[in-house]
Amino acid sequence: MSRFSDIRDGLMASGLFLLLLLLLITPLSLISVWFLPLPFLLVTARNGWHSVLFSAALCSFFSLLFTGQPLFLLLVFFSVMTGGVMGFLYRKETSTGTDVALGGLVAAWVGLLLSGLAVAFFTDVLAHIQTIWREQWEMTQEMFRSAGVDEPFDPDAVKMVIPGVSMLFTLPFPLLNLVLGRRLLMRKGLPGKYLLLFRKWRLPRGFFYFYLLSLVVLLLFSESESVGIAFGNIVIVLYLLFFIQGLAFTVFLLHRFQRGKGWAFAAVFLSFLLPPVMVAVHFLGILDTGTAIRNRLEEKR
Q1: Which of 121, 136, 180, 214 has its CA 20 to 30 A from that of 203?
Q2: pTM of the model
Q3: Does the keyword rRNA-binding belong to this entry (predicted)?
């Protein structure tokens, strides 16, 4: 592709990002915020990393010029990281839509955590939030005491799970951008990248061993605050992944034994509604990842 095309696509991506940024001050922000990585996905998938760096520099410059707020650079960073990784994976001939989505999920999660660390290091925003949180929690404690609860939940424990829970917030970014980005890229002649059928999803077996290792480390070194925070969040994220894997294995079993889609919807619904069912599905995910039971069932067909 010519240098002119690189510059043209970089300018178009920058313009689209600035438009999405502008929409954040309108009611359309509820929609536009989820597609901030889209321009960088498109330009990287078409032209490679050099174009996204050009776009990132332009967006950073104009964001500072129009807003005067350095914090907007974090939005650029988060969007470039998420969209750039997704575009890079989309550009690879051997990648699937699942690869693109998972790569985008990890990139979005890391980008969000790094942005949070930057905010905590360079500003006192988190200190103000923590002050407000403690004031509200003191009021809640009074309500607990009036209800006869002497030892309410420790509010400081919430900080230990924020990184892991933040992955739930980033989940829509890769999925929504993949769906819309795929449509736009296919119009430009690129191949469509689709998610695998849900029943065919399967985590690599390395996740199984890493989960066991993380649990062992967490049990042995739980008294260390840093280890507790780090591996506690790793376990939360892996628990979520194995829960999703368990849902995929449940759908696989229902398909294997020729049960209708209604059974699958009921299984997913009960998994979110009843905690014991969620735990059972989580163990099914561990079983599916750590053993060859799926292969054996497929061989018997």
Answers
A1: 180
A2: 0.71
A3: no
pLDDT digits (tens, 9 = 90+) for 216-269: 888 887 676 666 666 777 787 788 888 888 888 888 888 888 777 788 788 878
Question: Could you tell me the domains of the chain?
Answer: 1-195 (1.10.1760), 199-301 (no CATH)
Q: Which amino acid is at 28?
A: L
Q: Which is nearest to 204 in space by CA: 290, 296, 102? A: 290
The pair of structure tokens assigned to 131 is 């002050």
